Amino acid sequence: MKVTELISNHSGTGISFEVLPPLKGKGISQLFKNIDVLREFNPLYINVTTHRSEMVYKSTPDGLYQKMTERSRPGSVAVAAAIQQRYNIPAVPHIICSGYSKMETEYALIDLNFLGITNLLLLRGDKAKHETRFTPNENGHAHASELQLQVNDFNRGYFLDGTKMDIITGEQFSYGVAGYPEKHDEAPNMEIDVHWLKNKVDNGADYIVTQMFFDNTKYYDFVRRCREAEINVPIIPGIKPIINLNQLTVLPKVFHVDLPSELANELFRCKTDEDAKTVGVEWCTSQVKDLIANGVPSIHFYSLNATQSVRKVASAIY
Question: pTM of this prediction?
Answer without folding.
Answer: 0.91
